[in-house]
């Protein structure tokens, strides 16, 4: 990965941090995109120390706020000559319905719309490289998801885990549609399930799901193992040119029937464009 630039969202903890560390160890110029300056700086210092690389940068953006997404995309374009890998890793689980600063349901905003906008804004850099890779961290939870086209903002009967699964499904649909729309550009787009990872995910919520995660931590894999598929898709020569696929344990897998819907993927893209355009 020497000479390659990798942007990773949500890289101050969990899978994202482990992914950033491994890519830095392999010689990549790692660009961390984090919401919290304090947590981001602490993680950056650890990754630099443990990787032995000083080519680990920190940029601040809240994926739930499109103004900061647009600002960080502009900053990436100004600071870096190339972009080889974009890993859309950041994600949230909300036990109760909350709104983002832009007025969207928070899970929709942080897990999908922010990454949708960031990827589109970075399109010129990704295409310029001729072989860039876009990687979307989804979840096996997508099997329980469906895109609520008649209620994208979850205004009718919010349930945290269902909403989370819906937008993990959206990660795969977005990945597939990106692969179709950018076909022939040299840019590849793939999604993945990292495994059931023991991290701080969901632990800021005091609901039953957070409790279940705590009880099951002994049976969950480490963030380091959880990062393996992301690292594989970023580095492995055997996935060069592979696009529009879904991976588990670094191998191609078959996602749900809904995840394979070309119609839903196209519809989601168009609606996402409309939502992003509604925020000045």
Kindly describe this structure.
The protein has helices spanning 14-25, 37-51, 66-79, 106-121, 123-129, 160-181, 208-215, 223-226, 228-235, 262-277; strands at residues 5-9, 29-34, 56-60, 85-88, 133-137, 188-193, 246-248, 251-253. The protein is an alpha/beta fold and 280 residues long. Strands 3-2-1-4-5-6-7-8 form an eight-stranded mixed beta sheet, with helices on both faces. α6 links the parallel β5 (133-137) and β6 (188-193). α1 (14-25) runs parallel beside α2 (37-51), α3 (66-79) runs parallel beside α4 and α6 packs across α10 (262-277). The model is unreliable at 211-218 (pLDDT under 50).
Q: What's the short version?
A:
It contains ten helices and eight strands. The chain has 280 residues and is α/β, with parallel strands linked by helices. α3 runs parallel beside α4 (106-121), α4 (106-121) packs parallel to α6 and α6 (160-181) crosses α10.
Provide tags for this entry.
eight-stranded mixed sheet, 10 helices
Determine Rg (CA atoms, Å): 17 Å
Mean pLDDT: 92
Shape: globular
SSE-based structural type: alpha/beta
Biggest β-sheet: strands ordered side by side in the sheet: 3-2-1-4-5-6-7-8
- What fraction strand? 5-15%
Main β-sheet, in a few words?
A: 8 strands, mixed
Q: Could you give the count of β-strands?
A: 8
Count every helix, treating DSSP H or I runs of 4 or more residues as helices. 10
Give unreliable regions as ranges.
211-218
State the distance separating the first and last CA atoms.
37 Å
The helicity comes to 40-55%
Q: What string gives the helices and strands in order?
A: EHEHEHEHHEHEHHHEEH
């Amino acid at each position: 990965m020497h000479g390659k630039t990798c942007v990773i969202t949500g890289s101050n903890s969990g899978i994202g941090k482990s992914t950033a560390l491994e890519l830095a160890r392999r010689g990549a110029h790692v660009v961390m995109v984090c919401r919290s300056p304090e947590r981001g700086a602490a993680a950056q210092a650890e990754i630099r120390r443990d990787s032995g690389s000083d080519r680990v940068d920190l940029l601040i953006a809240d994926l739930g706020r499109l103004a900061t997404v647009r600002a960080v995309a502009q900053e990436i374009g100004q600071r870096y000559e190339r972009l080889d890998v974009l890993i859309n890793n950041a994600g949230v689980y909300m036990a109760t319905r909350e709104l983002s600063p832009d007025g969207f349901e928070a899970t929709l905003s942080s897990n999908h719309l922010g990454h949708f906008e960031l990827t589109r804004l970075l399109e010129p850099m990704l295409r310029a490289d001729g072989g860039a890779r876009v990687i979307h961290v989804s979840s096996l939870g997508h099997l329980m998801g469906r895109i609520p086209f008649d209620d994208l903002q979850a205004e009718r009967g919010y349930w945290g885990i269902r909403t989370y699964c819906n937008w993990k499904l959206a990660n795969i649909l977005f990945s597939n549609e990106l692969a179709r729309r950018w076909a022939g550009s040299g840019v590849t787009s793939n999604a993945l399930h990292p495994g059931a990872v023991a991290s701080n995910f969901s632990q800021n919520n005091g609901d039953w799901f957070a409790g279940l995660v705590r009880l099951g931590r002994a049976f969950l894999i480490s963030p380091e193992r959880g990062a393996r598929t992301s690292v594989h898709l970023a580095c492995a020569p055997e996935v060069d040119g592979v696009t529009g696929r879904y991976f588990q344990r670094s191998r191609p897998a078959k996602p749900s029937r809904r995840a394979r819907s070309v119609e839903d993927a196209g519809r989601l893209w168009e609606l996402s464009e409309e939502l992003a355009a509604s925020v000045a």
